Amino acid sequence: MPTKHEQILQYIESLEVGHKISVRQIAKALHVSDGTAYRAIKDAEVQGLVNTIERVGTVRIEKKQRSDIEKLTFAEVVNVVDGAVLGGKDGLYKTLNRFVIGAMKLEAMMRYVEPGNLLIVGNRDNVHQISLERGAAVLITGGFDTTEEVKKRSDELELPVISTSYDTFTVASMINRAIYDRLIKKEILLIGDILSTRETPTALVTYDCISRFHELVRETNHSRYPVTDEAGKVVGMVTTKDVIEFAPEEKVEKAMTKNPITVTPKTSVASAAHDMVWEGIEMIPVVDDYRKLMGVISRQDVIKSLQYMQTQPQIGETIQELSFQGFDEQMDENGKTYYRGRVTPQMTDALGTLSMGVCTSIMTETSMRILRRLRRGDLTVDNITLYTLKPIQLESTIEIHPQVMDLSRKQAKMDIEIRFENQVAVKALLTAHTIDR
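and the corresponding structure tokens:
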């Protein structure tokens, strides 16, 4: 039987998109305490079922598919630009298709205004009105207000009119940044993206006998299974090695490994891969927020997914990739590869010297590039130890020299130096593991 928390989430999910909810309303409808209702609403917000906006309230929104993650709702735009909603609050859950900057004459501007758009414009009341009539929301810059007529019409059409104190250029940059961050997030593969929800996961229950384990092995040809309690929560893992010394009539609970490592659908595939390598495990149970079993992920699943992602075109760039831009590969007199680049303002700390975070990123990136050439397979960094010997100033030209100290089938060790003005400024020792099938 679902818990009160789960019942509230199911109730919220059953509501129509655009429906307003509150703690008091949920508590009254489902006969729960205000505290229970509040926690469930916050969980629903994390899951993308609702969105809470200051001075507006909490609204049921359409949960985005991963393919649409780069699109913003009008409610999210309000948060991005720190805006105030002047009208059309009931339309905040809607998704904007694109935004248009209204820095032109009215006739020219209206050629670009379409339903689902967001028009960014100053205090031009006639433009606000026409934009709404064409099905587009309005974002007013400079902290200006609009007429009561426009506010009334926005309420009728359920199209938000938002005001922000920022100027047009700043607002456009902030929205672009938000969309760009979404694109990067979209590229990060999560366990939920590769987990099959069509198949019911095979599992044992604590009160099952060891003989049941052997039956499953014969049926599925697998040698390890998650173990759940009567409520379906994962409490252990059992493998062929675990049951060797136990009689067929003994309970699985005695043989299982308790409190196994688990992941959730929101865990990144890279993180799961690291856990598998570090702990030497072949399979990880996937659980929900209540630790109930949703499925399992094998090492083969993880490797295939990582290999697939490496073949996909990249849309957004992370800080690590931006930091490494401008570094060119060079070859020294001994035929060894090193990288040369310049310290840009974005790579420095408050004192104008190379940031430790950026320093770690570029040293890791150079090491992984060298290792990928030496052996096939996916690699994950276990540890990096950094020693700063000399500060590196802004606009300095630096050289990064990675050197392999040890390379085995499972592990690699790298010694990395950053040289500045023919002197060693930073040294690091990096250890990486290979993710094998």
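(Above: one complete record from the training split.) The chain has four domains: 4-60, 66-187, 193-309, 319-435.
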